[in-house]
Design goal:
By secondary structure, the chain is α/β, with parallel strands linked by helices. The chain folds into two domains: 60 residues, no CATH class; 56 residues, no CATH class. 22% of the residues lie in helices and 20% in strands. The chain has three helices and seven strands. The strands form three sheets. It has a three-stranded parallel beta sheet, with helices on one face. Helix 1 crosses helix 2. The N and C termini lie far apart (55 Å).
Length: 144
């Protein structure tokens, strides 16, 4: 009896019923659903497809829901897009009333950011595509 479990992420490219049956027959024990992408309805349909494939293959398959951690969102920006300049400075206001973002000033919905970070710490935007370095924080007024 093997003790290792085979976990496979199932998404749009692999949720075809015949593909799922072949994956179960090949030894897949656990299906991972990435809840960072897709809708709850799509995931519910995938669960049904996996259950059907497992029944056809005669093997149980567990479902693993991979839930995303909290994501902080910046507010609306001027003209729908702004360009940050490497080495430039940008102020991030947190919590209070949303302001329209510019290359010099962004708004973030979470009021706790300024108290949660310290100068020198890195902040990542756009799933890590943009990296900022905190140079100062003002927790009393929600500014980083």
């Amino acid at each position: 009896m093997r003790r290792t479990k085979i976990v496979a992420t199932v998404g749009p490219a692999s949720r075809d019923p015949e593909v799922l049956v072949r994956m179960v027959e090949a030894g897949m024990d656990v299906v991972r659903l990435n809840f960072s992408h897709g809708t709850h309805e799509e995931h519910a349909q995938t669960v049904e497809l996996v259950r059907s494939a497992a029944g056809r293959a005669g093997r149980p398959v567990a479902i693993l829901q991979d839930l995303p951690g909290p994501k902080l969102r910046i507010g609306h920006v001027q003209d729908g897009r702004i360009d940050l300049v490497r080495g430039g400075k940008v102020t991030i206001s947190c919590g209070a009333e949303e302001t329209l973002g510019t290359p010099e000033h962004l708004w973030l919905s979470w009021p706790g950011l300024a108290a949660a970070i310290s100068p020198g710490e890195l902040l990542y935007l756009a799933d890590g595509a943009v990296r900022l370095v905190a140079t100062a924080t003002r927790p009393g007024d929600g500014t980083t």
